[in-house]
Amino acid sequence: MLQDLISAQLISDYTIVELPGSINDLGGTRRISAAVGWLVSQCPDSPELCSQTLQEFVENGIDGEFARRFYHDKKERHLAGLPSQEPGVIIELYNSVLQFLSDVASSEQLCDFSWPITEFSKPGGNKLLPHLQWNMPDHLAWLKKAVLSFQIPYLDLPPLGAPWHPVCHMIFQYVSQIASSSLTQPLIQSQVENLLRKSYLKWKNRTCGNSDDDGPSVDEIPWDDILSVCIDHKLRDWKPPKLPVAPEAVSEDGEIRVYHFKEHLKNFTPPFSWEQARLRTQEETRQGHERSRVKSPSSFKKPRSISMMPHQYDSGMSMLSGGEKSIPSADEFTDTASAQEHLPEHLLAQLQLDKIESRRFEERLHQCLAEDLDPPGDSVGLPLYLPQSLVSTPPVTCPLMKSPVSPAQEAGSEEGCELLVKELSPTLSDRVKHFEQLLQATKEGDVVSELHLSALVDMVDI
Question: Is there a domain that residue 297 lies in?
Fold first, then answer.
């Protein structure tokens, strides 16, 4: 009998203790105490098991191994302006996590424990002690099947040039496989329909109806958001497999607990397709950053309008200066959906501002020309007592200015005239030429005025 227990590995070691017929004496008590102490020293450590309900086990596993990777990749692609990750890659990562969790919950190493003691267990188990069927092969097979039932079907990415309506029909067919019954199917379909409607409105506002396509392209469909809705619905609308479960495994509140090794949850390895997808995301993000660095900031600036910057001189002239203002880039319009929706209104308002500034420019130009064409009312003539040397000065046929013009002002006036010639339309070019002639006459009048004053000073000295 003893050898049979040793051969079956039910006993690892033993010792024989002779006990007296009565334990009332001190010697018998000491022998029993020593035997119990030896048993305690040979007792194996309690298994380091974790206990969770089936729903908690699946949700915590998905959150730790799938959601963390999925949302990190989604955020990186969104910040880099990249389209959604391929749906097949996301689904393979999610299903791989569930496959890993099912292996942990049904590990063969759990069958090696002959624990707990029957007298200490109860139906359904608890966090400290499991039920008697917790590591039986039939129950572990049921747990594996239950965890795998959370998986979702595979979805292929449609061709890039696929029409909008057939793609939407394919998506709704896929979504119908997620719901567990016809009662919950309208809920998930309405959520997916809302996502597709937002994508369509965003595409329509961006194209302003000038596209030959009937809707957004395959790259513009939010596959990650659609699959996120499907996974969330699957976790909420789950039904256990139809395989029979041991009655001892169900607790009083209807929960089924999963007992597993904590260290086993640290051994998950993402599938190769996900690793490749992560490398593509990093490469596309790096290329996008390099392209943004190559483009100079000035390449995003275009002349907006010509602004009037009048500088009044003593001669009554004004000068124009062209100003530049940067136009917002396309990336700034696509940051949010609201900016895209208001893009047509923004362009119309910008066009109106350009028209107003152009009209203001023309009015100012006409005003400047009108002021310079009007002759002064009280021009000063030459006195009769000028010396003979001044009489031979070439006559000036234009009116004299009331105040002299400095050389700096004359240079500014010439620059203003050149700018006017470049900016004005051909209908005003003749008037500009006449304006230049008047300016030349003004210069000659200044020379005559200086000679006149010099002659008066000489006569006073005499």
Answer: no
Residue with tokens 């267990």: 121
**Do residue 313 and residue 359 come from a single domain?**
yes
* Alpha-carbon span 275 to 63, nearest angstrom: 18
Which residues, other chains included, contact 90 with Cβ-Cβ below 8 Å and sequence gap of 6+? 70, 223, 224, 227
Total domain count, the chain: 3
266, 292, 318 - which closes a domain: 292
Q: What residue spans of 82-213 are helical by DSSP H? A: 87-105, 137-148, 164-176, 185-207
CA distance 197 to 203: 10
Q: What is the CA radius of gyration of the chain?
A: 46
User: Higher pLDDT residue, 199 or 440?
Assistant: 199
Q: How many residues does the chain have?
A: 462
Both 366 and 423 in one domain: the answer is: yes
Type and span of the H or E element at 433? helix 429-461
Q: Are the beta carbons of 51 and 257 closer than 8 angstroms?
A: yes
Is this structure's pTM higher than 0.70? Answer: no
Cα–Cα distance measured from residue 282 to residue 286, given in angstroms and rounded to the nearest whole number: 6
250, 256 Cβ separation under 8 angstroms = yes
Residues 158 and 206 in one domain: yes
Note the pLDDT tens digit of each residue in 150-203. 999 999 889 888 999 999 999 999 999 999 888 889 999 999 999 999 999 998
User: Amino acid identity, residue 365?
Assistant: L
Residue 29 in domain: yes
The beta-strand segments (E) located in 159-300 are: 257-261
Residue numbers of the domain that contains 252: 49-292
Question: How far are the Cα atoms of 302, 321, 350, 402, 423 from residue 355, in angstroms, in the given order?
Answer: 17, 17, 9, 37, 15
What token pair was written down for 336? 């949010």
Residue 299 located in a structural domain: no
Per the listing, tokens 């004359």 go with 410
Rounded to the nearest 5 percent, the helix, strand and coil shares of the chain are 60, 5, 35
DSSP state of 384: T
